[in-house]
UniProtKB/TrEMBL annotation:
PROSITE patterns (alphabetical): ETF_ALPHA (PS00696)
All copies of domain Electron transfer flavoprotein alpha/beta-subunit N-terminal, residue ranges: 7-197
Domain of life: Bacteria
Organism: Thermatribacter velox
Alphabetical UniProt keywords: Electron transport, FAD, Flavoprotein, Transport
Family under the similarity heading: Belongs to the ETF alpha-subunit/FixB family.
Protein name according to UniProt: Electron transfer flavoprotein subunit alpha/FixB family protein
PANTHER family (UniProt xref): ELECTRON TRANSFER FLAVOPROTEIN ALPHA, ELECTRON TRANSFER FLAVOPROTEIN SUBUNIT ALPHA, MITOCHONDRIAL
Xref: InterPro entries: DHS-like_NAD/FAD-binding_dom, ETF_a/b_N, ETF_a/FixB, ETF_alpha_N, ETF_asu_C, ETF_asu_C_CS, Rossmann-like_a/b/a_fold
Length: 333
């Protein structure tokens, strides 16, 4: 199969809306396309056509938008969704296929890669085009985040997933493009399928939160973590963690920030008991404001912090909570 100079972004949707991470991928695709001189395509699946949403994809960088319509997209069944994506992908013959390294992307992209008999580089932090052969250069952390690997895929199409929150979307409402609706009439028996979406209301999503409170090795026990959780609740923040805290079993992997975890860029990032290893910094240094609390005045985290507090983490957090309670009480009187 001879492939064309096209970059296809696989769009992710939730409850009828295109996820922001997909617009980030369009930004990445646009940057790459400037070097290969092709076009950027956007492929998504939905149960019902929403023209305004499809136009948003064009405004964020797509030259052409392809929307596959089938009721199966309303269910969390990636293998069936991927099956419906395969025909348009084979018809369009893109040279490069990109997607976000979200839970959805990490599930559906490997399936597609297997069906297309090609390779997939997951969790990339940077992409480029080799000026000598025009191939996709994929850069991602390896060996637990201790090194950065540069990878080129031998097979075609070249597929890669990119970490969210690394490339801000680029909006241009003057952009124009083509929208094509692909109605798939494949009928799946709902009695044989089961899909349930459970939203945890008590746990804020790290990558979507404007305030993130993260704990590191300085949070030595469960009692300290509970105190940190209380602070996060008071600040309406998501609770994050360093790799060391996850390895100790005090936090779960979905809370991990860093090269081997998630990348965040909130308005405020509060690092508590985090020394500032390069692997962790890579996952949060894009935050607008960084406040660090650490007993070691020489901790690397202070080099990028906008505000640093040197001292015992538990004592400082307790003092902050007391101030918050006082201010809350004053405003209520």
């Amino acid at each position: 199969m001879r492939l064309e100079r096209k970059i296809l972004v696989l769009g992710e949707t939730f409850q009828g809306k295109i996820e922001t991470t997909s617009f980030e991928m369009l930004r990445v695709a646009q940057d790459l396309n400037q070097k290969i001189g092709g076009e950027v395509l956007f492929l998504l699946g939905t149960t019902q056509v929403n023209t305004e949403e499809l136009e948003r994809a064009i405004h964020y960088g797509a030259d052409r938008v392809y929307c596959v319509v089938n009721d199966i997209f309303g269910m969390l069944l990636p293998h069936l969704s991927a099956k419906l994506f395969l025909p348009p992908i084979k018809e369009l013959k893109p040279e490069i296929i990109l997607g976000a390294a979200t839970s959805w992307g990490r599930t559906i992209l490997p399936y597609l890669a297997a069906k297309l008999h090609t390779g997939l580089t997951a969790d990339c932090t940077s992409l480029d085009i080799d000026p000598e052969d025009g191939r996709l250069v994929q850069i991602r952390p390896a060996i637990g985040g201790n090194i950065m690997a540069t990878i080129k895929t031998r097979t075609l199409p070249q597929m890669a997933s990119v970490r969210p929150n690394l490339f801000p979307p680029r909006l241009d409402t003057s952009r124009q493009g083509e929208i094509k609706i692909l109605k798939d009439t494949t009928n799946y028996n709902p009695e044989l399928l089961k899909s349930e979406i459970v939203i945890q209301k008590d746990q804020k999503e790290l990558t979507a939160s404007k305030v993130v409170v993260s704990g590191g090795a300085g949070i030595k026990n469960k009692s300290n973590l509970e105190l940190l959780s209380k602070l996060a609740e008071k600040l309406n923040a998501a609770l994050g963690a360093s790799r060391k805290l996850v390895e100790r079993g005090l936090a779960n992997y979905p809370q991990q920030v860093g090269l081997s975890g998630k990348t965040v860029n909130p308005t405020l990032y509060l690092a508590v008991g985090i020394s500032g290893a390069i692997q962790h910094l890579a996952g949060m240094q894009g935050s607008q404001w960084i406040v660090a609390i650490n007993r070691d005045p020489e901790a690397p985290i202070f080099q990028i912090a906008d505000l640093g507090l040197v001292g015992d983490a538990r004592e400082i957090i307790t003092s902050i909570l007391e101030v918050i309670d006082e201010k809350t009480h004053e405003s209520a009187v």
